[in-house]
Amino acid sequence: MSLVSLGGGLGGVARYGLSLLVPGAWGLFLVNVLGSFLIGVLMGLVPRPLVRAFFGVGLLGGFTTFSSYAASWSWALLATPVCAVLAAFLGLRVTR
C-alpha cells in the first residue's frame, strides 16, 4: 500500500468524523478551510517529499472535499474557495 493511499484513507475517516460533529454546509466549509490551512503549514515546515506526499496529497487530500462542496449550492459555493486559499496562505506565513 502506498503512503498516499494510506493517508487518503485516514483523511477520509477524519472528514467523516468531523461531518458527524458539524453536519451540512458548515461542516464542508470547516473541513476545506482547516485542511487548506494545514496544507499551508505542511508546506512551510516539511521539506521531505515522502512526508509531504503522505500528509499533503494523502491525508489532507482525503480530508478536504472540494468535490462535495461544489455539489451543494449555498453560501459555501462562493465562500469556500476564497477562504481556503486565504487559509493556506496564512498557514504558510505562520510557519515561515
List keywords for this structure.
96 residues, mainly alpha, 5 helices, 0% strand, globular, FluC, ion channel, transmembrane, membrane
Describe this structure in words.
The protein is mostly helical. The chain has one domain. Helices cover 86% and strands 0% of the residues. Helix 1 packs antiparallel against helix 2, helix 1 packs parallel to helix 3 and helix 2 runs antiparallel to helix 3.
Brief sketch in words of this structure:
It comes from Lentzea fradiae. By secondary structure, the chain is mainly α.
Topology:
Blueprint: H1 3-21, H2 24-45, H3 49-63, H4 66-71, H5 75-95
Query: How many runs of DSSP E, i.e. beta strands?
Result: 0
Protein structure class: mainly alpha
Termini Cα gap: 33 Å
Secondary structure tally, helices:
5
The stretches of 5 or more residues where confidence is low (pLDDT under 50) are none
User: Would you tell me the overall average pLDDT?
Assistant: 89
- What letter string, H or E per element, gives the SSE order? HHHHH
Shape: globular
The biggest beta sheet reads: none
Give the total of domains.
Answer: 1
What is the percentage of strand-forming residues?
under 5%
CA radius of gyration is 13 Å
Q: Could you estimate the helical fraction of the residues in percent?
A: over 70%
